[in-house]
Design goal:
- This protein has 12 helices and 8 strands.
- It is an alpha/beta fold.
- The protein has a single domain, classed as TIM Barrel.
- The chain has an 8-stranded parallel barrel, surrounded by 5 helices.
- Strand 3, helix 6 and strand 4 form a beta-alpha-beta unit.
- Helix 3 crosses helix 5, helix 5 packs parallel to helix 6 and helix 9 runs parallel beside helix 10.
- The longest helix is centred in the middle third of the chain and has 17 residues.
- The mean pLDDT is 97.
- The structure holds 3-methyl-2-oxobutanoic acid.
């Protein structure tokens, strides 16, 4: 069953008894496979920069890249609710945010966009985008586009200042019109509190098991890459090794 924003907005794990499951996807053939699965949501993440294009940071990803990969995924997954990331710098002003969101949404045919951060400025953008008909998923905690500003990759919400800020951000995103919020590397007990407080679903990554949904980078889940995935992700196989073995057998 294809989800829509009305169904997602009211999805809470407590009553649904199962978490919303979201995976990233970047290509047509994997999208076809996910389209035939029971997966709830597909995210064309700007993590495409890291896992597909070999960049050090998502900061290097531009809007043309997101349009290209989102188009491929939407083509392969017509029956799924697909969300695409607005990349770094493409929503630095209201004009840029409108222009780039409309381009990504219209050219790729995806159902929603995701952007990082909350206030004050991002909430104004979210309000405007939802007014013109573009659904927005929020994203707070560790926001990789701000890695240099945040001072690296680490768990957020460990001290009182950060806890208070994250709770305020989550509530502001809900008020601005987000249909769901990603909590990335948010301290587990705070992620639980935010989840209880919001009426829209929280989707966690590295934030414990108490969020309404979970998102994983598919390359980590399947161990597609050479490097081991981050600790919080338990791969369900090692496709890198399988491929390496097959190629070496072929080359014999
Ligand atoms: O780009 C991405 O893959 C993401 C997820 C980690 C939430 O934003």
């Amino acid at each position: 069953m294809k989800l829509d924003t009305r169904k997602i907005r009211t999805y809470k794990k407590k009553s649904a008894k199962k978490p919303l499951q979201m995976l990233t996807c970047y290509d047509f053939q994997t999208a076809q496979l996910l389209n035939d699965s029971s997966l709830d949501l597909i995210l064309v993440g700007d993590s495409v920069g890291n896992v597909v294009l070999g960049y050090d940071h998502t900061i290097q990803v531009d809007i043309e890249t997101m349009i290209l990969f989102s188009k491929a995924v939407k083509k392969g997954a017509p029956d799924k609710f697909v969300i695409g990331d607005l990349p770094f710098g493409t929503y630095a002003t209201m004009d840029l945010a409108l222009k780039n969101s409309i381009n990504l949404f219209q050219q790729s045919g995806i159902e929603a966009i995701k952007l990082e951060g909350a206030f004050p400025f991002e909430c104004e953008i979210i309000e405007r985008l939802t007014q013109i008909g573009i659904p927005v998923m929020g994203h707070i905690g560790l926001t990789p586009q701000s890695v240099h500003e945040q001072g690296g990759y680490y768990t957020h919400g460990k001290d009182q200042v950060s806890m208070t800020r994250l709770m305020k951000e989550a509530l502001a995103l809900e008020k601005a019109g987000c249909f769901a919020v990603v909590l990335e590397f948010v301290e587990e007990s705070l992620a639980k509190k935010i989840t209880e407080k919001l009426s829209i679903p929280t989707i966690g990554i590295g934030s414990g098991k108490n969020t309404d949904g979970q998102v994983l980078v598919i390359n980590d889940l399947l161990h597609l890459g050479k490097k081991d995935p981050p600790k919080f992700c338990k791969p369900i196989g090692n496709i890198y090794e399988i491929k390496a073995k097959l190629i070496s057998e072929y080359l014999k």
